[in-house]
User: Fold this.
Amino acid sequence: MAMDIPDKIKDRRAWTAATIDERAAWMTQLSAESLDELERVIPDSGHSLDDATDSPVVVAELSCCAAQLAPLRQELERGRGFALVEGLDEERFGRDGATSAYWALGQLLGRPFEQNVEGALLYDVRDTGSSVTGGARFSVTSAESTFHTDNAFNDELPDFVGLLCQRTAREGGRSQLISACTVYNELLEQGADLEALHGSYWFDRRGQHGPDESPVAERQLYAWDGAELSMRYMAYYIEVGQQRAGQQLSAGQVASLEAIEELLSREELRVEFDLQPGQMMFTNNHWILHNRTAFTDHPAPADKRHYVRLWLR
Assistant:
């Protein structure tokens, strides 16, 4: 990677809680015309989560939806890096119908790709009782996920990550976002080790690899392509990955990771909110780090916290 990265990222991507735009601007309410379009295009209610991915999206039939989402793409790429959308009420669409509508809307922003070795395009984010220390991904536990970018351990980063909220937890499970551009700027202010920031780290792959592939992967922490800053990050996966690779972090790498974690703990650098059923969140996965706080779930299975995730190119 060329080391001619700017001293700082000085545009809207490098926001803090004090400098980001008003919260009301984050949310797009799907219009009556867009909702009518979705009802005409989506599969009949009763389709399963897997069935939704078999339904091709005809963009020409979603012209109102496409017009509404076009400004969101600009925000995702060059603005705040995230956007919220609401309107998929279960009373109108049903639970499966809302998933199908979300699947259609996601394809107006990008092309879905596989999220696990099983090839799932739509991925359930819910507590399965699994343990992170036992090798599970944070997405199927109730533990705090900590700030991260999705699929940091594999070859291709999703450009955008989508989440549809279908059920909320009894307590906790807040969404938190922070700009990796802001974190980078702060690290530069502190005189951080550039070689360590742009160097390679070993990530544990959480079993998301082929039978003949390595369970760990060496990835660059920060990268610059001449226009966009990207970050691959998940502190726990790096910790486990380094151990499994038998590689010791350098003093500069240890200091860099400690500095990053300290910055990620600062409330003034992040925003947080609670998604409600029928609301969607889309984030730029190159430079928006996201976290989900730990949660306590409802006892009834039908009421348990449930999000549906999309990875988009």
Q: What stands out?
A: The radius of gyration is 19 Å. Residues 45-49 have pLDDT under 50 and may be disordered.
